[in-house]
Amino acid sequence: MNAVEEILKLKAETESDIEGHSVILLAEEAGQIMRRTMREKMAQGRAGWWDSTECHTDVLHRGFAKALQENRIDDVINYACMIRSRENNE
């Protein structure tokens, strides 16, 4: 391997590490947002998203659409995850 190839390999490895680190940071931030907003909603008396007898997925989809329309990104994240969780487990 010549010097140019070594530099290109090192550059690719560094970019990959940075990208991987960025993904981890993004996931951690999303988790923090979810925990904070879920605690706030629970303090307001909201609960039951996980129970299909209390909250149909249509309700979650409507909440998602409304949050998206109103640009409430933290709520969009939560609704998206609640919908995914419910639909993967039903």
Query: Which structural category fits the helices and strands?
Result: mainly alpha
Span of the ends, CA to CA:
53 Å
Stretches with pLDDT under 50, minimum 5 residues: none
This entry's quaternary arrangement is single chain
How many extended strands?
Answer: 0
The Cα radius of gyration reads 20 Å
How would you describe the shape? elongated
pLDDT averaged over residues:
86
Percent of residues in helices comes to over 70%
Task: Please provide a written account of the structure.
Helix 1 (3-43) packs across helix 3 (73-89) and helix 2 packs antiparallel against helix 3 (73-89). This protein has one domain (3-89). It contains three helices and no strands. It is mainly alpha-helical. The termini are far apart.
Helix and strand topology:
Blueprint: H1 3-43, H2 57-69, H3 73-89
Could you give a short description of this structure?
By secondary structure, the chain is mostly helical. The chain has helices at 3-43, 57-69, 73-89.
Observed structural traits:
90 residues, mainly alpha
